[in-house]
Amino acid sequence: MWPFHGRDAEVASVGRALGQRVTVLITGPPGQGKSRLAWECVSGVDGAAYWVTATRAAAAIPLAAVLPLIPPDAVLADRTHVLRAAEQRFRRESAVIGVDDAPLLDEASAALLAHLSRAGLARLALTARSGETLPDALAPLIGEVVELPPLPEDAVDHLIDHASAARVPVKTRRRLHRLAGGNPLALRELLHGARPGGLADLVTARLAGLREAGRSTIEFVACGEPLAFGLLERLVGIDAISDAEDSGLIIVERSGSRRVVRLGHPLYGEVLRAGQTVTRATRTYRRLAGALLATPLRRHGDALLAALWQVEGAHITQPPLVRTGARLAIGHADLQLAERLARAVRDVDPGAEADRLLAEIAVYRGRLDEAKTLLVNPPEGDRTEWTVTRAEAMYWGDGDLTQALHTLDSVGGEPLARGSRSWLLFFDGRCGEAAYWAAGVLGDPAAEPKATAWAGAAAAAANGFLGRLPAARQAYATAARRITDHTGRLPWAQVEIDTGLCLAYLASGRPRAAEKLALAGYRTALDGGAAMMVCGWALYAGLAALARGHHEKAERLLAEAQAGFDVDDTFRLSRTIRAARAAAAALAGRAAAADLMAAADERAHPSDQVFEPWIEGWRAWAEYAAGNLAAAVEATRRSHDLADKAGMPIVAALARYDLARLGVHAPPPAGRGSLVGRSPAGVGDGRGFAGLLDRAAAALADPDAADCLEQAARSLARRGYDLHAAELWRTAARRHRRRQRWAESDLAQAAGSSLAEAAGSGLAEAAGSGLAEAAGSGLAEAKTPLMRAGENTSLLTFRERQVLLLAAEHTSVAIAAQLGLAVPTVNNNLARAYQKLGIRGRADLRRLLR
Question: What is the pTM of this model?
Answer without folding.
Answer: 0.71
